[in-house]
Amino acid sequence: MTGAAFEFGNLTGWRGVVRQLWRDWMGRSGLILVAAVAIVAIGGPLLAPFDRADVAESRTGILQAPTAAHWMGTDELGRDVLRQVLAGTGISLQIGLAATVFTVMIGTVVGMAAGWFTGFTDALLMRVTDFFLVLPNLPLMIALGAIVGQSLPMIVLVIAITSWPSTARIVRSQTLSLRERGVVARARTIGLSSPAILWRLILPGVLALVIANAVLVIAGSILAEATLSFLGLGDPSRTSWGQILHNAFVSGAVGNGYWWYFLPPGIGIVVVVLGFSLIGQSLERILNPKLAAAQ
Fold first, then answer.
1. Which residue, among 238, 213, 217, 214, has the nearest Cα to 155 in the 3D structure?
2. What is the DSSP letter of 270?
3. pTM for the full model?
4. How many CA atoms lie within 13 A of 123 on its CB side?
5. What domains, with CATH codes, occur in the chain?
6. C-alpha 129, offset from chain centre
7. pLDDT digit string (tens) for the chain, length 295 residues
8. Measured distance CA(12)–CA(34) in Å, rounded
């Protein structure tokens, strides 16, 4: 089963992909990690809701090591770190998923347009893509983040603007291959319009690879949000993992060895990024047998 022949609407094919994903140790490990994080994101805040205004009334509760009352200790304001980490799980996942949706949408549209229309359109869109690819990603995100602001929608926008080129190149390559297929040639012969061909024939042919790439984009988006928040460009009114790390650094927890403050959100980031990365790599090997053979 290849990305070229795989169609999004083929439910039988997708069931086969899921079975292969579960049989592959990388895919199975990734699914377990992501499922565990998703359960925490959904159930954690319900079991242990976090109130940002719940601060300690005395200094004895500030930066307190883990105890029976506070399993992950407290922060510089005496707030429970475990509750913050549970709340941050959902926020980080939401930002990662939202940024991925916009990233994939931009990359898919640009890639399909470049691969289908070719010529001047292809050259122009690929030069724009190359421009974003050669720019250092982190400095570009920092510059854009400083310009557009620190709200969650703006963070999602910044991540999407800096992350779409890789998706565009993958989609363009697949579109160039699909446009030479016989079914596409027949559709053009009978006078089917370009938008209709792109929607009915090209899009289903590229979606499998787009989804595999999107899983990797989720991991990158979560890491990007954590980086921006750690650097002070995140939304201070929302408790994401990156924001917790930023607060821990500013309060001196890192330098003073208050490990319970910065270690849990750091481990959370590593686990979710690793989980999505394993799933994405496994999907790439399943949908692209040539890649698996090369490895």
1. 238
2. H
3. 0.87
4. 2
5. 11-294 (1.10.3720.10)
6. 19
7. 444 444 544 545 677 888 899 999 999 999 999 999 999 999 988 887 776 655 554 456 788 899 888 899 998 888 889 999 999 999 999 999 999 999 999 999 999 999 999 899 999 999 999 999 998 888 999 999 888 888 889 999 999 999 999 999 999 999 999 988 888 889 888 888 889 999 989 998 898 889 989 999 999 999 999 999 999 998 888 889 999 999 999 999 988 999 999 999 999 999 999 999 999 999 988 887 654 444 4
8. 24
**Contact assessment for residue 144 and residue 161, using Cβ atoms and an 8 Å cutoff:** yes
Q: Report the SS3 class of residue 48.
A: coil
The residue behind tokens 């990233």 is: 103
Residue 106 tokens read as 């931009």
Handedness of CA 278, 280, 285, 290 (dihedral sign): negative
| Residue labelled with tokens 């990603």 | 137
